[in-house]
Every structure is written in C-alpha cells, then in structure tokens.
Specification:
The structure is a single chain. By secondary structure, this protein is α+β, with helices and mostly antiparallel strands. 27% of the residues lie in helices and 32% in strands. It is built from 15 helices and 27 strands. The protein has an 18-stranded antiparallel beta sheet that branches. Strands 20-19-21-22-27-26-25 form a 7-stranded mixed beta sheet, sandwiched between helices. It has a two-stranded antiparallel ribbon with strand order 23-24. The relative contact order is 0.12.
Length: 630
C-alpha cells in the first residue's frame, strides 16, 4: 500500500494538495498530515470545538497576529491559516528519507534586503537610541535573504526538508508545510509553548556559540559559557517568558536547566519553564505571543521598536506553528494538546516562487555591530545550505559538547545568580505574612507586573493588576504597587508617564500605603524633589550586589535612568523620604507608608528579591499617614 507521504510526493508537481510533514524532537518517526485549509481572523476562531470528530488542527500563526494583544505590527496580510487534518500517517525517518524527493531545486539569489553595513548601522541606532533611552532591555531586529525558484512549491519544500533531515541536528521541529500561496520549510531549535494535561512548558533559548569551520572545541564552548553578554541575553529572555508564565499559570512558573543545545553550525543555551494552567489552549497561545527571543523585552515596546527599524512586515517569521492534537476520552469528549514551535530557521515560499529567509540578532547594551551582523549570517547559514546557496558544512569531528569537562559545571554555575523562588516548586505558605491584605499592581507597559503580583500573592496579599490607563480605584486597596515600564521618566509630554505621575500624586494625597518599582521609583523620586539622570552605561539585565537601608541585597536591574542624591543627602527635599543611595544613585526611598526601589524585586536575577519585597511591603503597611504631598 502506497504511503500518504509517497502519494504527496507523487502529486507535488501540481501543488494542489495542502500538507504538513513534521519530525518532532529528533524522533525516529515523521508525521504526515493532509486535509482542508481554513483561514480565520483570530486565534479564538481556530476550530477546536470537536464538531469535526476531534480532528487535529495545525495553525500557521503570522507575526501580525500580535495585534490581538494590542501591540504594534505591520499588517502584511499573512493569513492565520489552519490545516484541518483529514488524513494522518506516521512513517519512520528512514522511510521518510526514502520517499522525499532527492532533486535539485535551482534558486536564484537576490541577496539580503539589508546590507551588512546598513544592518550594522541599525544595531548602533537601537543600542544608542532605544536601549540608551530606556525603551527596553533587548530587541531582536531581523534582516531577510531573498531568492526565487520556478520549481513547484510543494516539491521544493519537500526536497529542502530531506536535506535538513540529513544535515541538521538538535532541531525541536524539522518540517515542511504547503498551502496555496504559503509554504514553509525549516529546522527550528525552539519550542515556544506546549500544553499537555494542563502542564505548560516554554523554552527560552538565547546566547549563540558559532562553531568555527574546523568544528567546535571544549575550550571554545567554555569561553562561550563564560561570556557575560551571552548569559545576560539568556537571563533577560527567561525574565520575559516568566512574565508570561505568571500571567497564565495561577501558581507561577518554575525554571529548569540551563541546558546546552548543540546544532550543526551553532550551539545555544536554554532553559525550560514549567507551570500549570486551566486556560483554553488558544488563550495560552494569545497570552504568549510572541517569544522574547525573537522580539525583545518588554514585549509591548519591543513590537513598537521592531516596527520602527524593520522593513515591512515579518510574515510568518517569529510566529509559530501551533499543532492542536485531539484526544477522545471514554465518554466521547474531545480535548486537545498543544505543541507550538517558533518559526525561526525557516524559509517561506510564496505562490510566485519568491523565497524569503529571515534571521535576527538579539541587540543588548553590550552588542557590537560586527558581532550582530555575523550572528545573522550564522543563524541563516543552516537554511541557506539546505537551499543550496552556500556549501554544506564540512564534516566536523564528532564531539558532544555537553559531555566535555567543565561544561556541566559552567551551566550549573549560572543558577547561582538566580532567585531560588523561581527555581523551586512554588508551594504557598500556610501562614503568609500579609494574609487578607488587598493590593493593586499598576502595569506601566511591562509584564514584570505579573511576576510582582505573583510574589505578592505568595506573601498572602489578594492582588489584582490594572493597566495604567484603566485604573478605576486608587483609594480602596490596602496597598498600591506602581510597576516598572519603559521610557524616560523626565518626558513630560508622554501620556503614560504623566498618568502614572498623576496616580502617584493621588495616592500620596490620600495618605495610603504605596510601593514604587523601577520607572515608578524614578517618577516618585522626581515628585520628592530629586533629579533623575541617564546612567553612564545602561543597566539592562544586570545583577548587582546593593544595599537597601543597611541590608545587603542581590537584585536585578533594568534601568537606563536613576534618581541622584547629592553628597551625603539622607532625606528628599519634598515628601520627607529617607534615601538609600550608592555612588550617588538612589537605590531606594522610604517614608511613612511609602517605599520605592530601583531594582526589580520580581526578576529571576534578584536572589534577594522576595525577602526585600516582604520587608518593603511590611514597612509601607506599618501605618497609614497624613497626606504629605505638596
């Protein structure tokens, strides 16, 4: 009997049958799917109602879908496309290789849409104008290689997939997907999110070790693992994905790892994040659009920065393939599992034969233009080789980098910088210190507020979160926590910053307890009469040993600006707040019912974050006070 894959290969010349061929998790088995194509407007419209006898659904989610979260994205028209599976088969890897077409797919190179020189200039601008202005900690800016072919798109992606199966290693998914006008082929290293029986798993990957031509060495990988820039990149994306985990998992997320993922031309460092949820899978997907490893942080502002610096829309690059697999229990009820890899290391082929391959570098405060240009070339190289546009990597000495002396120890050493709160299972205390106290956390466009809210709930506070432009009641909560966010606090024309400033004034006038973090700490400092200045070097994703009113604390910092105290100044000119400063930079403030902190107590980098948060909350709640604002 002819296999489904063989039939698809035989009919691929006319490209009339939609399909997906998927090898997951380096399995010895390959899934083959075909069925009906349906385009929908929103994630909530993906048909998972079981009315089709629980058919599996593979959704192609483009980057423009992030607009569902209210974030900026160029609308390039890439459809949210669903393959409703009518027929499914599983074949061995060997049988798949035997069936897939071993043919040459001629492709004409059109080159990168952004030259090396132009991309280097973008790196300089983003580091100086975006990170340097406090717009965020890191941003991923893409460039795209373009080519063309006259070969049927169905035949092309099947042939390229065969090459990837033979040449690539370490991929989370290797796949070929064909539909009218949009075909994809790739070997992505990164799971975005999966959900099985309520267990959510995310997989932040960052930090890139480019293998030399002669092959990686133990010395090379150890040098990579000790590189501060590379570890900072990973910690920042872990923070960003833990924000997402805190928003979808009532008991928060737990960090597992780190691990080293070895591929054919590159190696990456990664963590796994786990938590539990009872949300609809489409809501999980919506709340996690999209991975910070392909956008930046904070997410909302990263999308705005991407739109400022990239040419055109992203299509499916940095979106996801979302595979909803149905299960039917003994009573006939249909449920689904979700497995969604990120669409990177992926080529897109449209109906006119245009091939697009996008690659992006993570730009941080320590980025160099030359290094980030090289990283985009390295990330594109595996797919460019599969397309036949550059030579395949020569055979390299067989070396398992994870087995090399010192590698395991270097990976474990990274966790010494992280908060144990996010590494251990987060069981709730039987007698939390602030049980019954109500708290409102104000989101200033940074989902760090979700992690703050989770920690406050751990301490017993009944906590809700409200966005800065939708705060209805500033009086009633026992405690209001003003959260972090992007931007220059001195910008008096920014509506968001002025609104936060007005909310702070209102709470101060009411004489009710408040805590301010990072950006809000800076705004409070200005209200208290302190100047705020740009730091000589941005502290984005930096862990520092600091002093908070006589108590040492290791905290994570994400700030480009800081309040400044002069000389031995101990009290603010207004509001009568005590000052805790180091080297002139104000780390914290406190007064009757008021406290603020520059560091991110909720960050995974803040080893002493929870203890410091408990101390500051306890201080603010010690007593109410008379209004002191003037």
């Amino acid at each position: 009997m002819t296999s489904l894959l063989s039939r698809l290969v035989e009919s691929s010349a006319d490209a009339s049958t939609p399909f997906a061929v998927i090898r997951r998790h380096e399995s010895d088995l390959v899934d083959v799917l075909t069925g009906e194509i349906v385009d929908v407007e929103k994630l909530a419209d993906i048909p998972l109602d079981g009315s089709r006898s629980g058919c599996d659904v593979l959704a192609l989610v483009p980057f423009r879908q992030v607009r569902e979260r209210g974030f900026a994205a160029t609308d390039d028209g890439a459809p949210l496309r669903c393959l409703l599976v009518k027929e499914r088969d599983t074949v061995t890897l060997d049988d798949a290789l035997a069936a897939l077409p071993e043919v040459e797919v001629p492709i004409g190179s059109l080159g990168f849409d952004t030259t090396d020189e132009d991309y280097a200039e973008i790196v300089r601008r983003v580091v100086s104008e975006e990170i340097g202005r406090g717009e965020g900690a890191n941003f991923v800016i893409r460039r795209s290689f373009r080519g063309s072919t006259s070969v049927s798109p169905a035949t092309a992606v099947l042939a390229w997939m065969r090459t990837l199966l033979l040449s690539e290693q370490g991929a989370y998914w290797t796949f070929a997907v064909h539909s009218p006008g949009h075909s994809l082929v790739g070997a992505t290293p990164e799971r975005h999110v999966s959900v099985r029986d309520g267990l959510v798993t995310m997989n932040p990957i960052s930090g890139t070790f480019r293998h030399p031509a002669e092959g990686p060495t133990p010395e090379g990988v150890l040098k990579f693992l000790s590189d501060v820039k590379e570890s900072d990149e990973l910690f920042m994306v872990v923070d960003e994905e833990m924000k997402m985990m805190s928003s979808i998992c009532p008991t928060g997320g737990r960090i597992l790892g780190p691990y080293l993922k070895q591929m054919s031309r590159l190696s990456h460092t990664e963590y796994l994040l786990e938590g539990r949820t009872d949300l609809d899978l489409r809501d999980v997907l919506r709340a996690t659009m999209f991975a910070p490893t392909v956008t930046g942080s904070p997410m909302e502002n990263a999308c705005t920065v991407i739109q400022r610096h990239e040419q055109g829309g992203r299509g499916y690059y940095s979106g996801v393939l979302a595979f909803f697999e149905s299960r039917t229990d003994g009573s006939g009820a249909v449920s689904y599992e979700l497995d969604a890899p990120i669409l990177i290391r992926t080529a897109h082929l449209d109906g006119d034969g245009l091939v697009t391959l996008s690659a992006g570098a993570t730009l941080v405060r320590l980025s160099t233009p030359e290094g980030e240009v090289a990283e985009t070339h390295a990330k594109a190289s595996g797919m460019l080789a599969a397309l036949g546009l550059i030579p395949q990597a020569p055979p390299q000495p067989a070396i398992n980098l994870n087995a090399q002396p010192g590698v395991a120890e270097a990976l474990v050493e990274r966790n010494h910088q992280l908060a144990s709160f996010w590494i251990r299972s987060q069981g709730w205390e039987q007698h939390p210190p602030f049980a019954g106290t109500t708290a409102l956390v104000i989101d200033c466009e940074d989902q760090f507020t979700e992690m703050l809210a989770h920690q406050l709930r751990h301490l017993g506070l009944r906590t809700s979160v409200a966005r800065w432009d939708s705060v209805e009641d500033i009086l009633t909560p026992d405690l209001v926590v003003f959260g972090p966010g992007p931007g220059d606090p001195r910008d008096l024309d920014n509506v968001r910053l002025e609104t936060v400033r007005a909310l702070l004034r209102s709470r101060l006038d009411l004489g009710r307890p408040l805590l301010a973090v990072c950006l809000s700490h800076q705004i409070l400092s200005m209200l208290a009469g302190l100047p705020v200045e740009a730091l000589p070097t941005p502290r984005q994703g930096v862990r520092l040993q600091t002093n908070v009113f006589g108590t040492g604390a290791a905290l994570g910092f994400y700030n480009t600006f800081s309040p400044v105290a002069e000389g031995d100044q101990l009290v603010t000119p207004r509001l009568n707040l005590d000052i805790s400063a180091e080297d002139g930079f104000v780390v914290a403030l406190r007064g009757a019912g008021v406290a603020s902190i520059q560091g991110h107590l909720e960050s995974v980098l803040s080893s002493d974050g929870l203890a410091t948060l408990e101390c500051l909350v306890g201080y603010t709640l010690a007593r109410d006070r008379a209004p002191v604002y003037d």
